[in-house]
Amino acid sequence: MGTFVISKRFSGDYKFEFTSRKGKTIFTSNAYELRMDCEADAEYLRSVLEACSYVKFKTSKGKFFFRVVIDNRVVAVSRKYSTELMVQKGIDEIVKYGSKAEILDFANNDFVFPD
């Protein structure tokens, strides 16, 4: 099962990441100034993952990624993948396990995850 992990960026803003069953980051949210906004969006996103749009892109260097879109607003960007098939597997994992994912809050700890 995947997990939403809330943490603090070096800039002091908050973010959440969706990590796979194996612990790899699948996507990272936009920055939030307030932790409660970050938590609320993570909760909301978890409840609507199956209805989200997943827009695929290819970088100029040949890597693939996707953006998670809700109501014409980009709420998260995936990590880079080497193939389009891997992108689809990432999206499939989100749709399959995302609604059951727990939310872990590491933002209160003294350490900061790198961006």
TrEMBL record:
Pfam families: DUF1508
Residue ranges of domain DUF1508 in the record: 60-105
Superkingdom of the source species: Bacteria
Descriptive protein name: DUF1508 domain-containing protein
